[in-house]
Design brief:
The complex is a heterodimer of chains A (about 220) and B (about 1000). By secondary structure, chain A is mainly α. Chain A has one domain (about 10-215). Chain A has helices at about 1-5, 10-30, 35-40, 40-60, 70-95, 100-125, 130-140, 150-170, 185-215. In chain A, α4 packs across α5 (about 70-95), α5 packs across α6 and α7 crosses α8. Chain A is globular and about 60 Å long. In chain B, α25 (about 670-695) packs antiparallel against α26 (about 700-735) and α27 (about 740-765) crosses α30. In chain B, strands 6-5-7-2-8-9-3-11-10 form a 9-stranded mixed β-sheet, with helices on both faces. Chain B is α/β, with parallel strands linked by helices and about 1000 residues long. The model of chain B is unreliable at about 1-10, about 150-155, about 385-390, about 455-465, about 615-625, about 915-925 and about 925-1000 (pLDDT under 50). Chain B is built from 34 helices and 11 strands. Classes of the chains: A mainly alpha (about 220), B alpha/beta (about 1000). Chain A: Pathway: Glycolipid biosynthesis; glycosylphosphatidylinositol-anchor biosynthesis.
Chain lengths: ~220, ~1000
Amino acid sequence: MRAEATQISALTAGAAHLLCFAGLAAAHGLAGRGALVSDPALALRLLVVCEAPIVIAVFSYLRRDAKSCSFFKAVARGLIGLPVGAFLNAFGAIVLGAPVGIKYWIATIYWSLVMSLFTFVPAACVFGASKIDWQNVLSHSIYFTPTDVENYMISAPCHGAVLGAWLGAWPMPLDWERPWQEWPICVTYGALAGYMVGMVVSLVLMTVHKRRVRAKAD
Amino acid sequence: MSPPASHRRRSRLLSWPLLFVAILAVHSLAVYLFTRGFLLTRTELDLHSSRDDLSPQGNVSPGCASWPPAAVDRLVIVVLDALRFDFVAPSTFFSEKQPWMDKLQVLQKLAADEKNSARIFKALADPPTTSLQRLKALTTGGLPTFIDVGNSFGAPAIVEDNIMHQLAKNGKRVVMMGDDTWIQLYPEHFNKSFPYPSFNVKDLDTVDNGVIEHLLPSLHKNDWDVLIAHFLGVDHAGHIFGVDSTPMIQKLEQYNQILEGVIDTLRSLSKPGGTHENTLLLVMGDHGQTLNGDHGGGTAEEVETSLFAWSPRTPPDAVLSVLDDSSCNVDLHGKEVCVSTMQQLDFAVTISALLGIPFPFGSIGRVNPELYALSTRTWVNQRMGTNACTSQDDLEAWMGRYTEVLCVNCWQVKRYIDQYSATSVIGFPLEDLQHITDLYSRAQENWSASLITTCSSETGSQEKVEGKGSVLLQQIDAYNDFLQSFAKLARSAWTEFDLWSMGVGLLLMILSVIIQASTLVNMNTISQSSDQKSSGSRIIPRFSLAFALVVIRAASFLSNSYILAEGRVANFLLATSCITSVWHSVLKGNISIEDLVFLLLNIFTRFGIEVGMSKQLPAPTITKDHPVSVICKILGVNSCNILLELFPIISLAFVAYIMLKCLSRAICQRFLKYFLLCGTMVSYLSIAFHWASETTLFSHAGTVQEFGRSLAPCIVYAIGGLSLAISAFSRIFGPTVHLKMNKRIIILSAVMLCSWSPTILILLGRQGPFVALISMTGAWCIVKLQQKHQRESELSVADPVSVIQWSLLAVCLFYLTGHWCTFDGLRYGAAFIGFDHFHIIRQGFLLSIDTFGVSHILPILSLPFIAIVWYNTTSKDNELKDVILNNINKVLLMYGLITAITATLTIICVAIQRRHLMVWGLFAPKGGAHLRAPWTCSLQVGKRIGDSAAEGRRKQQAARKIHGWAAWIGTGREGGESEMHATGKRWSSAAHTTGVRNTED
């Protein structure tokens, strides 16, 4: 495992994150300023369209068992993972109180696809169906104990996105009556912010970890 | 084990009840002090003045033997909602000219040009400065608090005596146009009315245009005596755009135009013989507003409104000497404008005096001399009463007349004071009352004496006449003294919070939280040192999660939005805790069915809460795409109704089955078991029968229906009480010692649940079984998860997350059952299940069971289920008993701490926001609900631990509840409906329907 882990350098990881970020930026550029508020469904759709190919491609390239598993198999895993993750995310959101109604369906579907891209798809592409790896991704131990670079890459943004979305729900009941308080706008903002923070955190963790490994080696 | 150690342990166990009692005492004291400082209450008297109040009784002075005669024939009242003082007064009265000043030029011009007949007043309102309270104050002449204890159980209509009532009774015809709040307050008092919805704050023009359409044509008609035109535009413009905005200025300019039209019309018709020969025009605000357009509080901007009075006919110049104590200033055109100050409190009685109707019974105002003098006819020298012994000049005659009016005024206020002290729940302090009474009797004696002296000198010399003027002045002063000191007393009793006792209450509350927290920490360190050291690291994340949930929930009470959405917040937090537990299970790799069931349960409660919320808010959009209504649409209305009728009974059968199954398994004492089984069966059958007799599906014979409607609930209540008594009896005398601790606690809880649940179910109504199923499933999930957690961590300590989940579930259930924390969120219907007549203790008790049953009583009674040790680490029975007792203490303490923290935060919030518009609508009932929770909990705590003494305490609990509720139901009845209707309506319209940030500070 360790030998494999060294295959991905921090630079590659950084580049991968940069690509994902570029996807978000492209979606933002296409949708235009404030599109998320004025037309959330359209903005989220653009986000899915721009981000999905990038995330699936990048993380399929970074797949764990590169020898036994072809690139296309990883892509297929990602494509299956996308709706499954979307379903889980949507379920979680509804449990937490996301509004259900004809008016919100489309936005909810796109939102959960975006969340799936942030959380579920990377892990699906990289790990496939390996149970231990999934548990590793979910665990909070990555922040305390050193682990593989992919784990950092996948876990931190995933946790960030989920926490961000959770925190993003808090302004919703306030009576400010701003358009962005509607479901799923502020939740999406929160998730995006959390995702980006997670990417930065994962890079920081990687460098810290590397330095620690080097110090140990010395 | 060495004897000293066991002895120590025993003494520790014995000291628990004492600790709980102490916490309870501190709690109760804190709550008592706080509520005493915070709850301003006033009792509404359902008494009315009548025309012949004064004549037959000889208890009034000779000078004032009748209500004053009418001084104006017709009255036009133009109410401009939220009219700030600086909208009307010339800008020269203020340090800086602002863009919104000097827009009502026509009023300023009149005040400058016709000093004798027009006058601008600064009218000082009393908080709460919300429209409904102000309208009530303007017409009753009282000081309405948010909680007026009265007799109306539903409608916001005013039951107290008021001008409208007097006008209608004395044959005056009233026309109303504008704000429909008037119609709610006075549903039957208007001859003609043109109400327009005041609901939509965003709509600046509907009400105003409606008034404009009817105002001028009505002025030409002759079919009314009093015309009220209530414009809302300024209020709405303030709420949405603030004072310094173009819409506001446009509105003011529009009003200027309208008022010009009104004044021209009145003037043209005011010639002798015209229809407005003796008409008085009043242009007034009901309250002010801040620059942001907020109102409700007691700041100068909010309470300072203005009143402009003008009569088309000019009184004699002597009027100026009455008006002399006013501040004058030069206006924009170099003319002198004078402004007087009056209390809004005085409005009702002054208007009554002018129109010649009896003063409203509960009015505590004083006839304002300046406003009274503006009417020409008060200057007509009539021979009236006994004081016209000598020839007088204008001023003196007027003063004589005014003194007589004041005399009647004082008599009427004194009568109110006497009646109020005799009948109200909370009267005035005795020494103050004595002082007031002294003032009154001195004034009246003085008056009789002066009457005798002036009239005895029939052909009085010059000095006598001069003397009479000063005597009258003295007399007026004496009356003023009396009226003002009473107004001051009333203000302190009805509008001022007792900050000192609120502060002490808050400190005590914090103290009790600290005691509980430190005890809990102490307990944990003890149990941890005895347990394995390594367990600490495993407990910490659980504790921090629980702590975070409590803190988030408590912090959410600082914002009114979160209080409004408390059900959803609680559900969100519950769901969060569920998701973390799922996450935890996934990490461990063993997902159990309970996790998933709990998640699904969350979805159910969430939709249930949304249904409850949709009832609360006037927003039909929520219900439209709600799953239930969608299902109904698919099935069709008819089959849907049948389903809705049948579903409760089917689920009730299910609940009953589960209940009986549990009972038969749990209880092993034979007598108790059979009794409880029978009792439960009969109770559930009665409930089913009760519901069946109410449905429209079957047709019944009258007697059967009657039986089902009234007798069946009584049977349920009786069985509940009986089984409580029997369980207590069997606990005291029954041999339970041989049973294991686990078993004993289960029996105890099961018995309590059995005896309470049927009563609560029947009070909840049709939704009851559904809620019961949800709560049972929830409890099952929590207990199972707790077991799993105990098995995993191999620890037999109570899990804080389970406790907080339990309490969050309880909150969710509160909202799920259609309650919400406002006075009109009380389900009054529940109080009358089985009874037709109102009895304050009985109905209050039922209402409290309904309100707190599913959210406080049942969860706390079933709390020991979490405390039971399912995973047995020690084999020794003796040690197990210790562990269990320790656990129970801990769980109860934790639950108590959770409720205490929320209660403390609620108190802080209430204290901070005490002058906030919403405080009575939302925060205060919230406070009420929360403050009672710890009582129940603490009492419950005591009960669990102690033995026979506990029963006594439980009774105390019941007694306390009745007591609390007697107060709350009393306040709730009137306060609930009427006040919330207005504040809630205004507020929800402002904050929800239309989206203004007017309540956000």
